[in-house]
Amino acid sequence: MLIGYVPDALMYNYIPPLRMTVDFFRRRMANEGAADVYSRYHHGIPDRLRLFKHAVAIAARNSKRWLGAILLRGRTDRRSVDVQIDAARTQSQVKYLMRLMFDKELRSLVLKKDWLNE
């Protein structure tokens, strides 16, 4: 099959207005935060104490940013949006870690190896 490459080609994508809101990006980054934790522990979940320490470490590193996100909520300048979406991602990581500590069903789903051959 013949394939061509045109380095100066332009491509346009339609992005619906709903995907260009701060709320959308906060939700997207929250999902990414949960995926970060899933990926980290997919091959083995440590004991609850270690999960708790991981959650505390994330909270300690990000508590100022979380407060900033509360104060900046509703603002749409680049710095404010960056703070808000990063806070959403790291808060989601902590929530996922807490769920992973206590939710047996989630633990079994995270450790599941083969999703295609049930």
Word description of this protein:
There is one protein chain. The mean pLDDT is 95. This protein is mainly alpha-helical and 118 residues long. The protein has one domain. α2 runs antiparallel to α3 (78-102). It has 4 helices and no strands. 66% of the residues lie in helices and 0% in strands.
Summary tags:
single chain, mainly alpha, 4 helices
Helix content: 55-70%
Can you give the mean pLDDT? 95
Estimate what percentage of residues fall within beta strands: under 5%
Count of domain modules: 1
- Derived structural class: mainly alpha
Q: Sheet with the most strands?
A: none
Radius of gyration: 19 Å
How would you describe the shape?
Answer: flat
Helix-strand layout with pairing:
Elements: H1 22-41, H2 48-72, H3 78-102, H4 104-111
Helix pairs in contact: 1-3, 2-3
